[in-house]
Amino acid sequence: MKEWITGRNPVYECLRVERRHFFKLLINKSSSAKGRMEDILKIAQRKQISVEAVDKNVLSKIAEHHQGIALETSVYPYTDINAILDRVEQSKNPMFILVIDQIQDMQNLGTLIRSAEIFGVHGMIIPARRAAGITPAVVNASSGASEHLLITQMNINQAIDELKQKGAWVVGLDMDDSAESLEEINLDGSLAVVVGSEGHGLRRLVREKCDHIAYIPMMGKVASLNAAVAGSIALYRAAVNRKINS
Amino acid sequence: MKEWITGRNPVYECLRVERRHFFKLLINKSSSAKGRMEDILKIAQRKQISVEAVDKNVLSKIAEHHQGIALETSVYPYTDINAILDRVEQSKNPMFILVIDQIQDMQNLGTLIRSAEIFGVHGMIIPARRAAGITPAVVNASSGASEHLLITQMNINQAIDELKQKGAWVVGLDMDDSAESLEEINLDGSLAVVVGSEGHGLRRLVREKCDHIAYIPMMGKVASLNAAVAGSIALYRAAVNRKINS
């Protein structure tokens, strides 16, 4: 299976990380080879990837937001949970993992991947079924951060059980009577942050497995934060906590 | 000028806040009047708004994400900066304002509005030219939070000058050599947070007017957070700071 990654940052990160196979690079024949485009062409040359200058229309047929570039690659290189646990061990820092319970919106999933990579998680777990996988649209929304992050697709309840066995403290983001303010929870040990779906939050079984349910203090009149923003705030809070206390 | 607001939360918030004129409500004739839809129909009846049950296709022609509902309204009710400053005075809390310097993406602008409303800003200032205004797509992306927030469209440099005259501490989000970690800046006095565009950050003149430039500590390999996430984290940080110290 092959797919097309488009957009300058996504293509650049793909090439830089080298976790996929690369088949072909298409560039808009009227784009100038400056900035990120120049970086991409240099890497493509070094890796001996075939480059074709094409008409803009060819790229528009592949994806709406192509920014003059499309890279044909193998599909997203999912890892298994052991690869993530190995990375935890190698890093010598306490475990820091993001678990996604049913995010549906590709833009939100991409945004969460970007934040997770930036705040230094060891890896991310997404559900095996129903929810969005790491499609080219998600890669694009993550600005290519997906290529750096280790992502496992598996049953979420089973993943949480495994992480708990390895000593993770599991903090789910949600609003209910048992929830504690995010500010009051200590986030600097071995940690898995669980983010639920837009609109419905965490599924019951997943929620029951969490050691803590945390809410983000809100003062406004509308019901809830964007799911990707809420997750990103929790990751930021954890990253700061861990840095200060390490 | 009239426009169509679509989606259950956006329509509900519009009706609830009553800052626009309402002309007509269209609902998908196959939608059941439950949950949010029931709330909407009750308000429409009370306000004597004409309701029409229509075929789904009629709604799809208005907007892609209609969720079975569209409300015809007057355009977005911008306020002037004095209305925001009045709200600051009435609230008896120190000024808390979000200033947007050139966000282009409607999804990001909507997400920032949603976060700003939730974290209790007194108002928001967006540029008069070039950048996105509060279109129905932005209302939708804000999940209707735009209807609660006071938003002024004006020259950003002039707005910052006026806010400074009223005693605001102006904190711009950006990355450069002079930037300080967001965690090290005191955010609990009179405050204006300035968020720059995706990709380019703050414009030079705007940056020079800031009292502080703050960065969000990042540990990953990709270049930067999504602009709406970065802005939301700064607002969260400020909201928590202010709550704890008030």
Greatest chain-chain contact: A-B, 35 and 35 residues
CATH topology of the largest domain in chain A: Alpha/beta knot
How many helices of chain A does DSSP assign? 9
Q: Return the structural class of chain A.
A: alpha/beta
Distance between the termini of chain A: 43 Å
Please write the string of helix (H) and strand (E) elements of chain A: EHEHEHEHEHEHEHEEEHEH
Give the name of the CATH architecture of the largest domain in chain A. 3-Layer(aba) Sandwich
CATH class of the largest domain in chain A: Alpha Beta
Radius of gyration of chain A: 19 Å
Morphology of chain A: elongated
Give an overview of the whole structure.
With 246 residues, chain A is α/β, with parallel strands linked by helices. The first copy, chain A, has two domains: 2-74, Ribosomal protein L30/S12 (60s Ribosomal Protein L30, Chain: A); 81-244, SPOUT methyltransferase, trefoil knot domain (Alpha/beta knot, 3-Layer(aba) Sandwich), CATH 3.40.1280. Helix content of chain A is 38%, strand content 21%. Chain A contains nine helices and eleven strands. Chain A has helices at residues 8-17, 35-46, 56-62, 81-91, 106-118, 136-141, 156-165, 204-209, 227-245; strands spanning 2-6, 22-28, 50-54, 69-74, 96-100, 123-126, 151-153, 169-173, 180-181, 191-195, 212-215. In chain A, the strands form two sheets. A seven-stranded parallel beta sheet of chain A has the order 7-6-5-10-8-11-9, sandwiched between helices. A four-stranded mixed beta sheet of chain A has the order 1-4-2-3. In chain A, helix 2 (35-46) links the parallel strand 2 and strand 3. Chain A is elongated and about 60 Å long. The mean pLDDT of chain A is 92. Chain A binds chain B through residues 9, 13, 107, 111, 114-115, 117-120, 143-145, 148, 183, 216-226, 228-229, 232-233, 236, 239-240, 243-244, and chain B through 9, 13, 107, 111, 114-115, 117-120, 143-145, 148, 183, 216-226, 228-229, 232-233, 236, 239-240, 243-244.
